[in-house]
Amino acid sequence: MRILIVGLGALGGVIATRLTAAGVPVHLAVRSAEAAERLKASGLRVTGAGGEASAAAAHVATLDGLGGARPFDLILLATKAQDALAAAPALPGLLAPDGAILPIQNGFVPGMVADRLGDSRVVGGLSNLGATMTAPGVYEQRNAGHLLIGELAGGEDGRTARIAGLLGAGIEVRVTGNLRGAVWSKLLLNCAVTTLGALAGLTMRRFLALPGGRDLFMRTYDEALSVALAAGDRPERMVVEPLPPGWDGRSRPGPAFEAWLGEILAFYGDLKPSMLQDFEQGRPTEIDFINGHVVAVGRRHGLATPVNGAITETVRAITRGEAVPGPALLAGIAAGRSRTESP
Hints:
Elements: E1 3-6, H1 10-21, E2 26-30, H2 33-42, E3 44-48, E4 53-55, E5 60-62, E6 72-77, H3 81-87, E7 95-103, H4 109-117, E8 123-127, E9 131-135, E10 138-141, E11 147-151, H5 158-167, E12 173-175, H6 179-200, H7 204-208, H8 213-230, H9 255-268, H10 274-281, H11 291-300, H12 306-319, H13 327-334
């Protein structure tokens, strides 16, 4: 199978490096011809969890520069969510007749890509890999995560098994028959771990230790979980069971809850939130595909989502330069204040 990886940020870079180092030839697509030349000269290197690996970036170009190339059997779309939707129209011309496109962004991007290109072309995916790009072509893998892939319509077939077998040469890949449920499970953690950490400018372990930090985590998670269930989807286990122990619409503090939360902390507790990296580098965030998606789906089902709504607006304010990450932002959201009011 001919593989194209679109996007050489933290996630795409780790996957590309580990596949190439394992002997799986991949082609790479980046934003500009200048970026392509830099990667050809520097190569690719990964450190951290999973061990060190390095590889040459022999086949790297822009999407436009791939015109006329022999079609690809698998296109792994590893850009940010908004960039995935922008790149989608160019992908069918690069795809073999029976090939597949595999988006692995946060949220329900695979379904959005399928709406544009057709369900038969798209396999859904998501990632639990924690990674950071420290320089172009240089990556640090922060955990022993995996890719999870599945058919958009549910169930399992030979296509997902073949893709998992191919990518499994470099990274761990699992297959699910309940992709929508898996996407929701990851989204719950994105909403309550990644976004809150980014707003506070802290890791999960540190923001939970703030006054009110744990309560805000629970309120954010509970809102998102209620929306997922109202949408008729069945979140599945990812790191933890999606329903906290004793959940009845609200998380219930106690020993069982602490053990559940401890499992999340063991996986995510000391990771730098990817959205915080977006803030620091002046990049657009994926907030509309994370907490913003919860707000939109909640509205369609008549559910109020005041906490996720406030989080979404505060992220947008940071992006506009009207606020800066810090613990005070979490305190304001927890107290029900707008982003412009003082404690």
